[in-house]
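User: My instructor asked us to take a sequence, write out its structure as tokens, and then describe one feature of it. I'm not sure where to start. Here is the sequence I was given:
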Amino acid sequence: MNRTTRLLWIGAAVVVLVIAVIVVKPGGSSDNAASTGPVTVDVKDFKPVGGIKTLTVKKGQHARYTINSDEAEEIHTHGYNIAKDVGPGAPAKFDFVANIDGVFVVELEHHGTQIMSLKVEP
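Assistant: Let's start with the prediction itself. The structure tokens for your sequence are:
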């Protein structure tokens, strides 16, 4: 195999590798990774199980999420000023059109604990 042929094979291998990386998009997901679909956050002892989750939606889409809690509390979505009560056996379900772009804190209002982040992209 001459030098030119060898360089062509190496070039072809690099192209295949780049395409594979683009298609596969390596990286794992975790419980607190961003999501575009309905999100459920479980709260135990006034803390989000698995950490703070992020829901990402496009402006104009519905933001849908459910909060379950082992204790009674009020869930407040800042920026949209939407609040609902939650408690054992009584989840707080949110479904509204996200018409304000930005990043908004969802928290346990009386404890001041962030449990979720709502990211609305333009």
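For the description part of your assignment, you could build on this observation: The two ends are 54 Å apart (CA to CA). Try explaining in your own words what that tells you about the chain.
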